[in-house]
Every structure is written in structure tokens, then in C-alpha cells.
């Protein structure tokens, strides 16, 4: 079981989501974040949630309406690129694990003040990569991080080597439907 690498999946159909998720699982990855970047998100989450052994989350969750739709479809966690206190509170009330996003120490501190102990760092590579995570980890020792944005097969190990990094999210594994299983297998070996 590997949940330290969370592929980020954006699809145009639930059929594509199911195919991609089965390939991820066959490659050894047991979590996926399906983004709310297309109209297929809810159906994709619903279909993927039926796959035995796969933990399905909703990504790019920017509103309570998206959060509610994700939960109704079977999402087991949710992730956002930003920290919206209304969405954080709605997730807390619903009992859904929620990882808000941040790009600056001020935004990280805001998430901490809202009671979040895991924060997504986005876009990680543009912010300074693993060096940025290492730096903010020293001033926020109680927090754990999920970097996304610019994570690749080449730098995944650098992020996962940091004790404050609970997992890494990335699109490189799912960018093309063909070859997902092989890319998942390679990422699972690093994670």
C-alpha cells in the first residue's frame, strides 16, 4: 500500500477515470486525487470510489458545493489549492479529511490557525521546491505538508526525503492515459 504518492487526475469522462484508477492500483499506488477541473469530476469520483483498494479524494475543491458533491460521490478526502475558511469548516463539520493549500508562510499560518495540521504547498516547484518545504518546516514544526505542482519522477525523492512531507501529489503519472501503470509502478518504488 503506497499513499505517499497521490496522483492528481483530471479527466473528461468517468470511463477515463476508471481506466486510469485501475492502472494506478495495478502499478502499486492506492490513492488518487480527482480534480474539479472538468464537468466529469463528480461522476469520475463516484466511479473510482467503487474500485476496491483505492482511496479516492477530490481535488481543486474551492466551494462548499463542490465539497458536498465530492462527499456525495464517495470522496474520502479533499484537497484545495488555497485556504478558504468556509470550506475548511464545512469539511470539519462533515468529518471529511481536508487539506487546504498555501504558497506563503502567511497562508501556511492561516491554515494552522484554522486547525489544519496538514497543508498542501502549491505550486511547490515554483516556490523553491524541496528547499522551500525544508525552510517552512523549521518554523512550523507541528505541520506536515503535501507538495504539488511541478513534482516529477526526477524530484519526487527529494520531497519524500523530508520528514515533514506526508505525501506528494502530481500529474506526471496521469498526464497521459497510456503508460499510467508503468509510471505508477516507478513512483511507488520511490514512495
Major sheet attributes:
6 strands, parallel
- Examine the secondary-structure arrangement and name the CATH architecture: Alpha-Beta Barrel
Domain count: 1
Distance between the termini: 10 Å
Strand order of the largest sheet: 5-4-3-2-1-9
Radius of gyration: 15 Å
Helix content: 40-55%
Provide the CATH topology: TIM Barrel
Q: So how many helices?
A: 9
Low-confidence stretches: none
Identify the CATH homologous superfamily.
Aldolase class I
- Give the H and E element order: EHEHEHEHEEHEHHEHEH
SS class: alpha/beta
Shape, please?
globular
For the residues shown, what is the average pLDDT? 97
Strand content: 15-25%
The CATH class, by name, is Alpha Beta
Instruction: Please provide the count of β strands.
Output: 9
Summarize the structure in words.
This protein is α/β, with parallel strands linked by helices. The protein has one domain: TIM Barrel, CATH 3.20.20. 42% of the residues lie in helices and 17% in strands. The protein has 9 helices and 9 strands. The chain has helices spanning 14-26, 41-48, 64-73, 85-94, 105-113, 124-127, 129-139, 156-160, 180-190, and strands at 5-9, 31-35, 55-59, 77-79, 98-99, 101-102, 118-121, 144-147, 168-170. A 6-stranded parallel sheet has the order 5-4-3-2-1-9. It has a 3-stranded parallel sheet with strand order 6-7-8, covered by helices on one side. Helix 1 (14-26) packs across helix 2 and helix 1 (14-26) crosses helix 9. The longest helix has 13 residues, at 14-26. It is globular and about 45 Å long. The model has no long low-confidence stretch (mean pLDDT 97).
